[in-house]
Request: fold
Amino acid sequence: MVYSQDPFHIADISSHAMSLIDMALEEDECFNDATTTLLVNSNTTGTGILMSKETGILAGLGVALTVFHKIDRYIQLKPLMNDGSHVNPGSKLAVIKGKIHAILKAERIALNFLQRMSGIATLTSKYVEAISSYKAQIVDTRKTLPGYRYIDKYSVRMGGGKNHRMSLADGILIKDNHIELIGLESEALEDKLKNILSIAPTALKVEVEVSDMEQLHQALAAGIPIIMLDNMTNDEMRSAVSIVGGRALIEASGGITLDNIRSVAETGVDIISVGALTHSTRALDISLDIDIYTT
Reply:
């Protein structure tokens, strides 16, 4: 088996992820591990194997391995699978070879990243698979763990989903509170939306959230290219798709679950946004098994 000390290209790891890793290592006081220092000789070496304990989609392996490298830059790492891969119970994900001190200090933080990211990818893949026979695409939201926006949305992509706005600066999304504010003035919503389109930066997409058919007609008449249907029934969404007739992309949002997503996709919408992908995900069960060298 050939090992490398930098198989995952640390230079390619997002600065956001690197900052999170540094914060996590400091939070856990990984360089002041009282238990390992007391029980394990500092020169003891061995091998750790990252292994999946359940079926899912892998995401975050590079981030997890970076944790070990940050603890000990001489540690040897060998990824055995790529992010986006399907894993089963017993699937070996990576081999870590080096000082047991380093492996134990990095273990919990590495698993925290890997389990969360793989959990998001796994949940996303279930939504994607549920509507695979329809045109609608699954997208995430900004309902991410604070600070984890980049890696949460990366994990969604590994599960086959798409990313909505990365931040407030990435697009113009006029939601209910915005509509209420601009709708209080005498000018009609349609005229307000036309004005917004005329002054919006050309590089930014403009989307409007509507809650009823009157708002839908006004958004459509204004030429809004993306219209979000907020918490509408399936019949209302089906009617909206018919009214729009392909003149704008239609996004369904609100109350989307694995139990109802197929029926939502059947209405003919183009995009389905699911906040649960990142705000209610369950960690994928992954373990690190360690063997001390006997030679």
In short: The first strand starts at residue 45 and ends at 52. The chain has two domains: 10-120+282-292, 128-279. The first helix runs from residue 15 to 27. The chain has a mean pLDDT of 91.
